Amino acid sequence: MSDQTVIFKPAWRFFMTTIQLELPDSVARFYPKIGEKIFLQALNESVRRLIEEERVELKHTMARIRRYERKYKCNFDAFTKRMSSKGNYETHEDYGEWSYLEEKAKLIGDDIANYERLVAA
After folding, report:
1. Does residue 35 fall inside a structural domain?
2. CA 111 to CA 32: how far, in whole Å?
3. Backbone phi, then psi, for 2, in 5-degree steps?
4. Higher confidence at residue 30 or residue 114?
5. H or E segment at 86?
6. Does residue 98 form part of some domain?
7. Structural domain tally of the chain?
8. Sign of CA dihedral 9, 13, 19, 21
């Protein structure tokens, strides 16, 4: 490594954050010519992989949600309305887990949408 610091500043600037990279000399010497392009391609590929990982996680989460829907023969909203009148320890425990899964699925879906917008930009 050299003492040379490379700061990536893309040509397009919206709300931007400066990212400082420390590169081996063998890579840094190519940076002026291909740096931004390589960085953007790597970022794009990383985000695409992240989207795929998030989709797998969402699929697993939705499978767990469907188990509760089959068990109680309703969706989460209907379950919460029925739970107050027929609650016991098991339904209370299921409510906690199911509630968590519903929120998790929503957050993962939001993340996927944000990542897809990033890749499309």
Report:
1. yes
2. 33
3. -105, 180
4. 114
5. none
6. yes
7. 1
8. negative
Looking at the predicted structure, is the pLDDT value of residue 61 above 80?
yes
The CA distances from residue 4 to 25, 27, 36, 68, in Å, are: 8, 11, 17, 57
**Residue 118, token pair as written in the block:** 């990033």
**Residue 1 domain-assigned (yes or no):** no
Element (H, E) at 20: strand 19-21
Q: The domain containing residue 59 runs over which residues?
A: 6-120
* Assigned token pair, 27: 């890579």
pLDDT tens-place string over residues 84-119: 666 688 888 999 999 999 999 999 999 999 999 888
Kindly state whether residue 25 falls inside one of the protein's structural domains.
yes
Residue 38 corresponds to which tokens in the numbers above? 């390589």
